[in-house]
Each structure stands twice: as structure tokens, then as C-alpha cells.
What does this fold into?
Amino acid sequence: MNLPDASSSRQEQSTSRFVRACLRQPVDRTPVWFLRQAGRYMPEYMAVRKHHSLLDICRTPDIAAEVTITAAERLGVDAAIIFADLLLPFTPMGVDFEFLAGEGPVVNTPIRTAEQVAALRTDRIDDLSYVARAIEKVTAHFASPRADSARGPDNQDQLGIIGFCGAPFTLASYMIEGGSSRNYLETKKLMYADPPAWPMLMEKLVTVLTGFAAQQIEAGADVIQIFDSWAGALSVTDYRTYVLPATTLLIQNVKNLGVPVIYFGVDTASLLPAMRETGADVLGLDWRIPLDEGWRAVGPGCAVQGNLDPITLFAPEAVLHARVAEILAAAAGRPGHIFNLGHGIVPGTPVEAVLQVVRQIKQLAP
It folds into this structure.
């Protein structure tokens, strides 16, 4: 898919504080959005789920756009992330999966041999175009700049639109394990002991994910977030040897399409210097490392996103307020901080607590 090389000028002229923060440009205040901001803690989302499965929502552009828009408007955040799922690219690659109650995603036939990897398809990326169609609807809805009520009607801001995909390692681990895992035994066995299979799998995933991201950018996504949710299961040596090359290629491919890239993993404090080598514009920090310490590990020339513990949203108001203030103090108003959680909002989270954080950011953030 060929895209016009005009996105860099679009970024330079962006009126979105979220996009500008991704590029470490000055902003009037810290932008805020939340991982899983459209999800099972919101009554509006649960009303939709009564009539539609998760995959039905993802694959129906009108509904995916509705869920995305409703959450962004309800919370008053600075960016909307399209409602989708990391595993959607599996289907056009020939990998069947489903979501089982209480178990999460389950791959019916795990990929564990070179022969299975060789059979994976990379020529059906257009089958994922329903995500792009949902992004088009979200982009059209938020096309007009909005007034920031905390800063007055003269302060206009363009809501950022985030597309996303999984990272090669995380998607490979789901394919190989057949679902979630504690120790990633099968993944590491293939990674260590089957030299033909692992690089072939990484190459195929990069091809599909690059095309998937390109569709989303063409549809209007301002930023692509790449989720490496399970990279924290790796040692630094294994990450550098088996994961960093493919992840770097994917991130550079997406950046070459002209949008900033956010790269996020869980429990990755030890990997941050290596993750920085991918060239991502923003690194997401989980809650296990203080924000200023994580930013030092990342080094200059990179923005950071995070990193409130999502369970803090269950804390008393005074505790929640103190934790948000602590993160803002650690960021110290430096260009390139996006306030977020250190992982996704969990079911049962009080919506009022999420709204409280947004209000605090708008009132206090530099």
C-alpha cells in the first residue's frame, strides 16, 4: 500500500496536543488518555456487549466506531484509540481463534513447527479493512477542533486518533502458546531451537502488521501504538537477539508512513534501553518503575507515556490524587509526557475515578 509522503508536514502543523506531545513539541498541558478506555467498566460498553460479542464489535465498523467515540467523549480525554483486538490479524493469516468466557483468547491449533509457519498467509491483509473503516468514521466524527473547557473556548484542540497493532513477539507468543501463558515455554522452545521457524514467523508478522498499520493510517490514524504486552517475559539478551530486529523493522516501517509510534510493554523496566533502540517516538511505561527513572533509562530524544497503576483507580480520592500528582511532578513539565495508566483499565473500575483523573490533569498539569 502506497501512501503519499505528506504526513510529516501534517504532524508539524498538528493542532492536537496529543500528537505534539508524541513528537516532544510544546503543549499547553499534559495530554491524557487511558489504555482500554472503552471497555467492561463502562455501562455504555456493557449495554453494547449484551447484544454483540467482542469480535462482532471489532468487525462491525459502525459499532466499533460508536464504542470508541462514546468512551472518548464520556471521559473528555485527548485521544481516541480504535476499538479492536490484537489478534485480529490471525484470521487472514490462517490462524483460527476465539474468546472463551473466563479464559480469554484461545488459538485452536497452535503454531509450533516450521511447516505451520510456512503455511501462514500474508496476502490477505485487505481482510482487515473493517478496522480502517471504523477509523474513518471516528476521524470524521472528531474532524472539527474542540474547545478545551478547562482552558477556555479560545483554546482549540484536535482529538488524536490512535490506531494499533500487536508487536511480533507478543502475537507470536499467542500463536505458539495457544493463548495466554505464565512461562512462555513453547514460545521460547521455538525461539531457541528452531532457527528456520522463528525468523520466518517474525518476517511474516512484520509484513502483515505493516500493511495493517498502513490501512489505519490511510483511514486517518494520527498515531500507531504497538503493543508488546508479553515482552517482559524475556531477558535482555533474548530480547536483543530474537525480538529487537523484527520489532525495529516494524516500527521503522510504520514511522516511514509518516506518523509517530508508541511502543508499549508490560514489566519491561529492564528492557527500556533496548526498546529505545527501535526508534519509537514514545515508550509506554508500566507502573512498576517511577516515571522519572523510566525516562532516564529511555534517555533523551524520546517521549514517554504513563504510568499510573490501574488499580489506583480503586483507591480513596486523596490517594488517587496524590499518585497522579506524583507522576506529574516526576514529568516536571518536560515536553513529551502523555499521561496514561501503566496498563489497561480493569473491569469494575469506578467511572468517576477515571473522570477524576481527567479533571485533575486538566486543572493541574503543566
